[in-house]
Design a protein that fits this description.
Helix 1 links the parallel strand 1 and strand 2. The chain has eleven helices and twelve strands. The termini are far apart. The structure holds nicotinamide-adenine-dinucleotide.
Length: about 350
């Protein structure tokens, strides 16, 4: 299959590109190369004859039309987005422009291409979204997000992703565009950009810096290993039912404090400190405004209908991740000098 992957130089997009190339697909990687991008993430995949890169901003409709005409993809996997909640609190406009207007442009460019090609039945537009569109859950473990949970986004980031999900469904209902959607939980793994919680904790721990925990650390997330996510996405784009959405979770609910303590335990084992535990560096900081209490995915649909389950437990996935960061210092060192990385963002103070 020839896949047009947007955001393929980002964290999850690059995992999709690497896996797709490894499985023999062709890939057209469309990415504007924002602060969050790193082409090193796909350096090996880029050597494959079936790989092409287009530095294109999804806000540029004419450029997207050119990419579709030049590459004639069989399917689109749309991951390009502004993705950091804290940045969306300080400066929401990029989130509106890329996540909403950019998705609108992608839908219109894909529709023009699909209609121009005689509406091939097997064309797919796969929109990759987040569980954050569903809002915040109570602590009760029997309550989880299903595909029919009403949308209730509460941050500029999740509101922009919710808007994009609605556009994708509307383009299916109104124009018949063959779409599939996925909403997944928090990812972690190799090549995770060093402003997100898991890499921040690993890298601050190694640098002897405080390990910042927002609020009291009780916020619960369902953690998904990025390579498992990429595997689920390739399954959905090929086998997902038209117009349907699938929730993807790691079956690994943890509070932020539990997650950080697990990471400290792994680091204590793999790279022990001279004295004490990395957990001694844990520091509680002011909470994020509007911090959602709990996200939890009910993955029954993707399990029953497509037979997909995550391959690793959180302990296994976190250990792979810590080992990867220990082995790839040049990768993360380079990214630490990028704008905003290493600073506390999203306290509501604005830009
Ligand atoms: N990271 C998570 O835990 C998570 C969870 C659920 C869903 N998602 C969704 O998965 C997708 C990928 O997330 P990620 O964590 O890999 O993000 P990321 O921030 O690591 O990467 C985003 C990529 O998109 C590119 N991009 C941004 N704006 C663009 C534009 N205007 N035009 C073209 N390219 C642009 C960036 O250059 C970057 O390479 C997003 O749609 C996000 O909403 C992420």
């Amino acid at each position: 299959m020839k896949l047009l992957v947007t955001g393929g130089a980002g964290f999850i997009g690059s995992a999709v590109v690497r896996l797709a190339i490894a499985r023999g697909h062709e890939v057209v990687n469309v990415d504007a190369l924002t602060y969050a991008a790193c082409l090193d993430n796909v350096a090996d995949a880029a050597k494959a004859p079936g790989y092409a890169f287009e530095q294109v901003d999804i806000r540029d409709r004419a450029a997207l039309d050119r990419v579709f005409a030049a590459h004639k993809p069989d399917a689109v996997m749309h991951l390009a987005a502004e993705s950091h909640v804290d940045r969306s609190i300080d400066g929401p406009s990029d989130f509106i422009e890329t996540n909403i207007t950019g998705t609108f442009n992608m839908l219109e460019a894909a529709r023009a291409y699909w209609e121009g090609a005689g509406k091939p039945e097997d064309f797919r537009f796969h929109h990759i979204s987040t569980d954050e569109v569903f809002g915040s859950l109570p602590a009760d473990p029997s309550v989880q997000f299903t595909e029919t949970t009403p949308y209730d986004p509460r941050s500029p980031y999740s509101a922009s992703k919710a808007a994009s999900d609605h556009l994708v469904r509307a383009w299916h209902e109104t124009y018949g565009l063959p779409v599939v959607l996925t909403n997944c939980s928090n990812n972690y793994g190799p090549y995770h950009f060093p402003e997100k919680l898991v890499p921040v904790i690993i890298l601050n721990a190694l640098a002897g810096k405080p390990l910042p925990i927002y609020g009291d650390g009780s916020n619960v997330r369902d953690w998904l290993f990025v390579e498992d996510h990429a595997d689920a996405l390739l399954l959905v784009v090929q086998k997902g039912e038209l117009g349907r959405s699938y929730n993807i979770g790691g079956e690994n609910e943890r509070s932020n404090l539990e997650l950080v303590k697990t990471l400290c335990g792994i680091l204590d084992r793999l790279q022990p400190k001279d004295n004490g535990s990395y957990a001694d560096q844990i520091t509680f900081v002011t909470d994020r405004p509007g911090h959602d209490a709990r996200y939890a995915i009910d993955p029954a649909r993707i399990r029953k209908e497509l037979g997909w389950r995550p391959s690793v437990t959180i302990e296994e996935g976190l250990e792979k991740t810590v080992r990867w960061f220990l082995d790839n210092e040049p990768w993360w060192r380079k990214l630490q000098s990028r704008q905003g990385v290493g600073q506390r963002l999203g306290t509501g103070g604005g830009k």
